[in-house]
Write a structure and sequence with these properties.
With 213 residues, the chain is an all-alpha fold. Helix content is 77%, strand content 0%. The chain contains 10 helices and no strands. Helix 2 packs across helix 9. The model has no long low-confidence stretch (mean pLDDT 85).
């Protein structure tokens, strides 16, 4: 089990990668014609779906890597590159296409049910947050570590629920500029995380670099 300060850092990191506030404009677009009760159902479905995906990823993600013969160090590098791509888009105030492409957004507008696709997958529980969960799960092997990770995921999803439930209020009181400022700040955090993942992956693959990184 890690130190409690480390788990606080993991919570902040997962929240930054998930970035619920940056998804608000997309949610507003896809639910503009939805009634209040329909919006509540959509939000509840999104929360259950995202929570399920992240919990399942936590417990079987590393086993999937083993099944495909992918080492955790290789995954750290690829996951770090993916997070860096997300961070660069976010630093420009944009939603990364690794999470949601324009085509997926347009397809979501005509679907009867948008809660699972594209809101849950790939907008919120996309490759970035899935990669981060697998990498942070690898930091410990005991049950207490996994229980803390479950608690962190639940807290992150609760924050997500609070944001999505407040979409009507947020869309009226927070401008797109304000959301972009927050997105850029989260992008800066994600960029730092990406560098850390890539550096640790390189040290794992090339131990000789450990003395210099």
């Amino acid at each position: 089990m890690l130190e409690y300060a480390d788990y606080i850092k993991i919570f902040i990191a997962l929240l930054a990668v998930l970035d619920p506030l940056a998804a608000v404009p997309v949610v507003v677009t896809l639910t503009s014609d939805s009634k209040h009760e329909d919006l509540k159902k959509i939000v509840n479905t999104v929360i259950v779906t995202v929570l399920t995906i992240l919990i399942v990823t936590l417990f079987i993600g590393e086993h999937l890597l083993d099944f495909f013969g992918i080492t955790i160090n290789s995954f750290k590098i690829s996951g770090g590159i993916l997070l860096m791509m997300m961070a660069i888009s976010m630093l420009h105030g944009k939603m990364s296409e690794t999470s949601q492409t324009e085509q997926e957004l347009q397809e979501g507008e005509v679907k009867e049910s948008i809660a699972i696709v594209p809101l849950s997958i790939p907008l919120l529980a996309g490759p970035g947050v899935v990669s981060a969960v697998i990498l942070y799960a690898h930091r410990g092997n005991d049950m207490s570590h996994y229980l803390m990770m479950v608690l962190i995921i639940v807290l992150v999803v609760l924050v997500l629920w609070g944001v999505l439930a407040s979409v009507p209020w947020i869309s009226k009181h927070i401008s797109r500029t304000g959301i972009n400022v927050f997105t850029r700040l989260m992008g800066l955090i994600i960029a730092a995380l990406a560098v850390e993942f890539i550096a640790n992956g390189l040290k794992g693959i090339f131990p000789v670099l450990a003395t210099g990184l």
